[in-house]
Structure formats: structure tokens, C-alpha cells
Design a protein that fits this description.
Blueprint: E1 7-12, E2 15-20, H1 31-44, E3 52-57, H2 68-72, H3 81-104, E4 109-113, E5 116-118, H4 120-127, E6 130-134, E7 138-140, H5 154-157, H6 164-173, E8 176-178, H7 179-185, E9 190-192, H8 195-210, H9 214-227, H10 232-246, H11 250-261
Parallel strand pairs: 2-3, 3-4, 4-6, 5-7, 6-9
Antiparallel strand pairs: 1-2, 7-8
Length: 272
Amino acid sequence: MVVSERVTVTQDGGVAHVELARADKLNAMDGEMFAAIGDTFRRVGRDPAVRAILISGQGRHFTAGLDLEYASSQFPPASDAGRAAEARLRHIEWLQDSFSAVEQARVPVVAAIHGGCIGAGVDIASACDLRVASADAFFQVAEVDVAITADLGTLQRLGFLIPHGVLRELTYTGRRMGAEEAARHGLVNQIADSREAAIESGLEIARAIAAKSPLAVAGAKRSLNYSRGRPVEEGLRDVALWNAGTLVSADLGEAVKARLGKTEPEFGPLDP
């Protein structure tokens, strides 16, 4: 199913496959792309029929990052500097919300990354739960090369995935980090031979997730996201409250019955 000219979505069972679909522009992100990503993940991320999401890019690269022509047209000269600054702030927050929708999706999101994952691509990859990369993939926090401070999530999220010293080096220098180095630092879960193999590996992970209790998976993602950057005690309290409210669900009984009977469990969808 085509969502827009910028993003397509297909679904197979409980797995939705979101593709960046601006291959002729190396999936560079303009306003329509940001809007399509945000709208897609807000919709698909709460669809009760979806239990895992794969995101990939069409064409040569996962994404070349921010479309510079789009970026240069957003802030024309203004007569009032204060009002112009307020407008820029609102625009940046809108862009941030597009990628935060990926992190806030109720179900886990797996990224299948090939070729370049540049600038805004690293922002969106950092918002995903897991990452699979093709052997030719590279990651580049490239904002410094166009005199911008990365502001869509890389600086806030990537430090929980790779060592802070590495994050600072990538951010300050703009150098490329290849797939093997990314895997060594823990950013990439698997490396595949090609784009197609990375997508298939990502789909395999997504299918494995989709077979589990959707309530348990949603709770795990919620707890992991909530606990990030908070004291252990706060995370423990939050997950205790979650389980106190959800352990009465039918999923627990179904999982135990399947385990004892050595069969595959069948879990119902979450509520919309």
C-alpha cells in the first residue's frame, strides 16, 4: 500500500514494512518526507494488527539525510528576529516529532540499513529498537559539515547505543563509520551481505518479535524507553506497576499452556 510519494507501507502478517521511497533523491528528507514518516509511524505504530515494524530505504542508500534545498528554503529573512527564532523553534520541534514517532511506536522497530545512513538517517536509526546493516553500509553524523548542530535525536539517543567518546568523535569530525565498526560498538545487531539480505534479516527478526505476546513486548519496550537515563529504582517501580496491571491478561495463560503442551502460542491483538 502506498502511503505517499515519500513512504510506502506493506504488511505481511503482523509485520509492517515501511520503505523510504525517494530513491531518485537518495531518500533525502524534505518536508513531505518528514511529514510522511511521522504520520506513518503514528498510524502503523498503534495499529492492533501490527506487532513489529521494519524500516528500510529504496535505491542506493538508506538515506542521504536532510534535503539541503528544502532546508535552505525554510527560513527566509525576517523583519523581527525574535518571531523568526520562535518560528524556527517550532519547525525544529515538528521535525523532531517525526522521528520521535518511531521511538514512540507501541511495537519494536527494526531498521535495515544499506549504503549511506547520513545525517538525519542516523537520527532515525537511533530512534529504532534494532539495526541490521548491509556490509556496504556506513553511518555519518554529517551535520557539522554543513555548520549545523545535529538536532533531531542523534545527540540524545546514540550515546545510549555506542560509547560517548565515539559519539563525540563522529559528531565533531563528521567521519564515516562502517558497518563492522558500528557492529563492534553495538549499534548494529547483524551485518548482511547486501541490501536484500539486510531486509530479509530484519524481517526475520521482526517476525520473531511478532510471534511473541504483543502485550509483553509493548511492556518491555515501554520499560526500556522509560528506564533510559533514569535511576534503576524508578525503572523498577515503573515496570512493577506495569506487570501488576497486565499479568492478569490472557497472554500469560496462553503462553504457559503452549509451553506445557509444546505448541505455538496464539496471542490476540492489542486494543487500538
